[in-house]
Amino acid sequence: MAGTVNDMLDRIQRGVAERDRILDSQWLFTANAAHELRTPLITARTAIDVTLDGHPSRAELLAMAGDVRGAVEHMQRVLNGLLLLARSQAGLAAREPVDLAAVAAAALDAAGARAAVAGIAVRSEFQPTSVTGDPILLERMIGNLVDNAIRYNRPGGHMAVATGPADGRAVLRISNTGRHISPGEAEKLLEPFLHGQGTRIRTEGLGLGLSIVRAVTLAHQGRITVDARTGGGLDITVDFPQNPVTKDARSQDTDSLQETALP
Known about the structure:
Layout: H1 2-52, H2 58-89, E1 96-99, H3 100-117, E2 121-126, E3 130-133, H4 135-151, E4 158-166, E5 169-176, H5 183-188, E6 194-195, E7 199-200, H6 209-219, E8 223-228, E9 234-241
Parallel strand pairs: 2-4
Antiparallel strand pairs: 1-3, 4-5, 5-9, 6-7, 8-9
Subcellular location: Cell membrane
Keywords: Kinase, Membrane, Phosphoprotein, Transferase, Transmembrane, Transmembrane helix, Two-component regulatory system
InterPro entries: HATPase_C_sf, HATPase_dom, His_kinase_dom, HisK_dim/P_dom, HisK_dim/P_sf, Sig_transdc_His_kin-like_C, TCS_sensor_his_kinase
């Protein structure tokens, strides 16, 4: 009897601890989201107050309008990111075959100009590998990974993108050079609005990219690992349950995945 009661109390204690962890996480997310929206609102309000304090010229009014527009666009990006994060956490609205190779190739094409301007060398190996899921969410997930690899790279750096089957799973791997990240920091990059040792992100990014990647991965019963590279940058691997390819996949003749690994 005593053992049964103790087991019940242990389960209650674990449940309370898990509830507190979830509530703390939700509070932190809400606070950070509110801060992300408050900052551009303050920017817009300040631009309006300063400009209208007197007799502004046409040039000053146009400058104010530009500042307000930039703040509104920032808020729109934050809200779009939050809505996409909520959608991916709610589950899949569509289920159809999606070839990761085709999606990754399209994402690289779309980001090619940005990578070229930054002097980032891109290596790729696309082997057709299909999953069942929401094509819009999967496209956004891979787009976020490519964007992250370019945005946080270094000038003249490298990135490598590869897809293919492995052990019955459909695998996507993206590696990039960049600043040094400690192993303990890497996993925290999956949290929304966080960077490194739990500090807020203050960059041109919104801090939602990798948290959306994780949410989309989990919605598709996938797994994600984020590893800090010894020389700086990240090595991110996402894998899903694999399905046979049911539509044409875009492939590219390149070296093997091992040879696309960054130096």
